[in-house]
Amino acid sequence: MLILLVTDLALGQNSQSIAISVGKFNVLRINEFTTSEWRVELRSAKRNNVLNPFGGVMFNSDGASLFYMGFLHDFYLTDHIIFTPSFAPGFYSRGNSKDLSLALEFRSQLELTYHFENESRLGISFNHISNGGLRLPNLGVESFALTYILPLSTLLNSF
Length: 159
Description:
Elements: H1 2-10, E1 16-25, E2 35-44, E3 52-60, E4 65-72, E5 75-76, E6 81-93, E7 104-115, E8 121-130, E9 141-151, H2 152-157
Antiparallel strand pairs: 1-2, 1-9, 2-3, 3-4, 4-6, 5-6, 6-7, 7-8, 8-9
């Protein structure tokens, strides 16, 4: 998957973007490791592809991190409203945050964004991270975030 992302970047495809998210970690369990969360993702998304690769990293203010790579798909509900489900396995490091009982975790996410004329997007996302029942207890965590997505070409052209 990393090869797919790097290959698209090397070929100069205009479909890569950087997604930056700020949100709340463990949002459904108030006062139990509820903390701030930040994410950065590199996405490769072409409108006619069924599955598009992406990879990213999540950090929270209690020192947890998740490094993940997976697939997503953009469903254009209108010309400007995009629904994006995604799935990504990753490696979780607890820090001083919630114990998810296994280093291998799976993140599933639903995202809804508004697509601006300049190709950037702004939206919200909700995700769930758990070990998928590979080890008991299968403790999970949910996050809610605000996401800004910027085409990589726009970012690179600004330098």
